[in-house]
Amino acid sequence: MDTTTRSNRDAWEAASEKHVREYPELLAEAAAGTSLTPLERDLLRDVLRDAPDVVHWQSGHGADDIGLLQAGARSVIGLDYSAVAAGAAQRRATELGADCRYVVAALPGAPLASGCADLVYTGKGALIWMPDLNEWAADITRLLRPDGHLFLYEEHPAAPLWTWDADEPRIRPDRSYFAPSHVNDSFPAGGAVQWQRTLAEVVTAVITAGLQLLHLAEHPAPFWRMGGVDAAAWHGRLPNAFTLLARRP
Ligand SMILES: C[S@@+](CC[C@H](N)C(=O)[O-])C[C@H]1O[C@@H](n2cnc3c(N)ncnc32)[C@H](O)[C@@H]1O
Question: Which residue, by CA, sits nearest to atom 1 of ligand 1?
Fold first, then answer.
C-alpha cells in the first residue's frame, strides 16, 4: 500500500468511528431502506428485478445494503479498507438478519473470485479515493459475470470547484478541474488526499475495461450535503453528481 493510501485509510478509520457513535440512528435508517434514493431505485429497477448478487465496492458502513436487499438484491458483499466501518456494517446486517457479508480489503485488488457479481454498486464519495482508475475499472469488470452491471452514483468531478456560499455559487480559487488531487476539507478530513479526474477520464476508464456504457447523466443535486450547509451551488444551476450504468458483455 502506498503512503497516500495508507494515510487516507488512517483518516477513514478515525472518521468511521462516527458510524459507531451514531449506530442506533443509522440502524433505524437502514431498516427503513431510505438511504437508497429514488434516483438509484429508478436506474436500478431492471437490474434488481433479476435478484442480483451484489458487490458493494467501498461499502463504508453499508448504509445502502439493506435498501438494495429490500429492492430485490439476493445478497450483498461489502468491501472496504476500514475495519471500523465494515465492523459497524456487519453488526447492523446481523442484527437485521440481512444477507450481507463485509470484507476488509484495500481496493483495487478485491479478494473475491472473478465473476462473483451480477451488480457492482459503488459511489457516494468512493471513486475519489481510487488512485488508478484503470485498475479500478479492470478489477470491477473482473468481478462481474457476463451481463453483469456496474452502477456508479458519484460526486460530479466539477463539484469540488464550487464554493459553499449561501448567496450565490462561486469558483474556489484554490481548485482546478484538471488538478490531479486536493486535500479533503469536509469528511473524512484528517489530511486525506482526494484524487481528481474529469468526467471524460471516468467514462474512458469504464469503456477501456471492456464495459458497455448504458447510461450517463449529470445531476444538479449533490448525493450528500454537509450538515448545517445549504450552498447556492446546490440549487439547480450547476452539476453536483452523476450516475453511470455499464454492462459487461
Ligand atoms: C464516502 S465513503 C462511501 C461509502 C458508501 N458508498 C456509502 O455511501 O456509505 C468512502 C469509503 O471508501 C473507503 N475507501 C477509501 N479508499 C479505499 C480503498 N483504497 N480500498 C477500500 N476502501 C476504501 C473508506 O473507508 C470509506 O468507507
Answer: 125
